[in-house]
Every structure is written in C-alpha cells, then in structure tokens.
Design a protein that fits this description.
It contains 8 helices and 20 strands. The chain is α+β, with helices and mostly antiparallel strands. A hairpin with a 2-residue loop joins strand 9 (about 130) and strand 10.
Length: about 350
Amino acid sequence: MGRLHFFSPEPLSPRTSLELGGSAEDLVEVSTVAEMAEALEWATNAGRTVSILGGGSNVVIADEGVSGLVLVPALRGIDIDRSGDGAVVIAAAGEAWDDVVAVTVTEGLMGLECLSGIPGTVGATPIQNVGAYGVEVSDVIEWVEVFDREAGYVTRLEPARCSFGYRTSCFRQCPNRSIVTRVAFRLRTDGRPVIRYAELERAVGSGGTPPDAATVRQAVMALRRGKGMVLETGAPRSVGSFFVNPIVDAQCLAAVEKAAGDGNAVPRFPAGESLFKIPAAWLIEHAGFGRGYRWGSVGVSEHHALALVHHGGGRTRDLVALAVAIRDGVEQRFGIRLRPEPVFWGFAGADPLDGGP
Ligand SMILES: Cc1cc2nc3c(=O)[nH]c(=O)nc-3n(C[C@H](O)[C@H](O)[C@H](O)COP(=O)(O)OP(=O)(O)OC[C@H]3O[C@@H](n4cnc5c(N)ncnc54)[C@H](O)[C@@H]3O)c2cc1C
C-alpha cells in the first residue's frame, strides 16, 4: 500500500491533551489528499470504521481504546492572498492552530487574535466552531475544504452550508463524514481588533489608540494562562472546558435563581431573544465542585471550574465518573443538565455522559 505507514495498534494517550485512554486498532498519518483517499480505501477494504484525530485536545478516549482506523490529517501549508479586500489566509488541516494565529498577527492581520492559545489543529477549528472572548472562528471563515467520504471527492463549503452554532457545526453533527483538508479565513487589514469582553478590554488598556493585534494576542495569552487554559509542560492535562455553557430561557433562569437562594446572584449573559447563557463554571462551583476539588488522579482545575483535569497516573473511567458526578450534582441543585464539550471515542454510546454529540 503506497508509502503509507500504519501503526497497528497505536497508543493514543500520548496523542491527547488529557494523556488518557487506550490504543487505536490502526492509525495512519496522511500528508496529502491522495494519501487520505488511499487510507480510506484501505479502511473500506479492511472493513474498518474511520475516526479523524487532529491534535487530540478535545477527545476523551476510553481505557479500552478505539476499534477501526484512526486517521490523522497531517497536511501542511499556510498561504496568504492579499489580492482582494483585506487578506485571505488559507491553512492546511494539519497546521497547529496557534501557529497560524501567530503568523496572522505578525502579518498585521486582524480577526484571529482573540482565538490565540487554543490548542489543536486548523482542521478541527470548524468542527466545534472554536471560540473565545466573544469571537468564534465562523466569524472569519471564508470556506472549509473537505474530503467528503460519501461523495468520494474534495469540495468547498461556504459558511452558510456548515450550520455553525455555539460550539457546533454540521461536521460535529455528522462526525467523521467530512475530513477537513484546508480552511480559508478572511481577515482584515484595518488595524481594528474586535474586543467584546470587558475583561479583555481592561487587559489591553484603555489608551486613545486601538491596540494592535500583537497586543491583543499577548493579553489573551496572559488571561488564558491565569485560567489554566494554555497547554504547558508540567500543568495538569485537560480538554479545556469540559462542559458547554447552558443557554436557558427566562423561566429556567428564574428556577436557577430560586435554587441558588438569596445572596447568590446568578451570572448570565444575553444569548439571543429572551435567552441567557449561564456560566457552567458557576453552576459547577455552586453545586459543590469548587476549584481544586480532587478525586484521586483527576479533579477540577485550580484555575477554572470548567476544566476537569488529569493529574497523572489515572484512567479515563475516573475522569468520566467525576464528570457524571458533576453533571448529576448540577442537575440536582439547579435542574440543568450540562452538555459535555469534548467528543468521546470507544464508549458504548457516542457520549457516555449523554448518549449523543
Ligand atoms: C487547555 C485547552 C484550552 C482550550 N480552549 C478552548 C477554547 O478557548 N475554545 C474552544 O473552542 N476550544 C478550546 N479547547 C478545545 C480544543 O482545543 C479545540 O476544540 C480544538 O479545535 C481541537 O483541536 P484538535 O486538533 O486537538 O482536535 P481533536 O481533539 O483531535 O478532535 C476534535 C474533533 O474534531 C474532529 N477533527 C479533528 N480534525 C479534523 C479534520 N481535519 N477533519 C474532520 N474532523 C476533524 C475529531 O474527529 C473530533 O471529533 C481547549 C482545549 C484545551 C486542552
């Protein structure tokens, strides 16, 4: 089979930010679309299911491992087209996301600076429509190029066809059908960063002139470090936020306020007409799982209650048991069932916490 090298089996924990989980039955890295097609043909002939792995910073892998072929898109390349309005940055799926952000900032392009410091690859960013500090990657996506496994060819999707939403997209809803090969981002050259969070506004200072992209990036990185939201050597391992912030209507918000009791103001942010986003971290802390809560080898981050962490030497089942305890604790206290953010591989259902993506 061509130049492809299959690892059979291949331990997956070193390929994930949690450093947890068993092995893949087979794993292959592909660096061109032709290799991707070849690997997929091999999987079909061998009767293997296919799972796509980027940087492993948003997957929870069962201790028993994953059956079938794990395909790692390792396509590389970053191009900048300045011929039209602003600039279009085209990045291949296997590029590290933060490297691409750094390049755009160095080039003085605006649009990605608030998404600095998010681990993982370019190809994964449209999957859950990554976001931070009030910016989502879909705000600047021009197109997503995918290998459509059902059609058997490469095609480009405009954002309108990607069903982007809060931490979701059509790719997340039909996992592993489309393999992202490249993403194009339309960025601005107007020197005006988008700053939607008061916390970030304070961090960049309120001088008369708008901060440049590099200043915003530095401020974002510092804020993220303070919350343990940057992958650093020696820090406990995580997938970032373990739960999505729930979006509720006024009736549900009133029920949460009642459950919280007097003297506990429930934080909320507007999230559309008569809808409110409640920080899941607040619900978790007020359900008794404070920062630094420890359960053997796993626990809640000391910096942010939304991040569940692996301190080393643990098993995925411990982390999942803690996540279930937190979800159930929040539900009992506030009547809200938290939805997990990462994807789960190798479990009986698609999602051991809720049975679906
Ligand atoms: C410390 C930390 C902080 C984080 N902060 C944030 C944050 O601020 N905002 C945020 O949104 N996320 C955040 N995350 C989550 C994570 O970094 C992102 O979801 C990231 O985009 C995942 O990239 P990845 O390459 O590691 O994907 P993986 O974990 O490998 O895969 C995630 C999903 O994407 C799919 N996928 C990956 N590559 C492709 C491809 N080329 N084609 C098709 N499907 C693919 C996989 O099948 C899987 O379903 C954080 C994670 C950590 C560990």
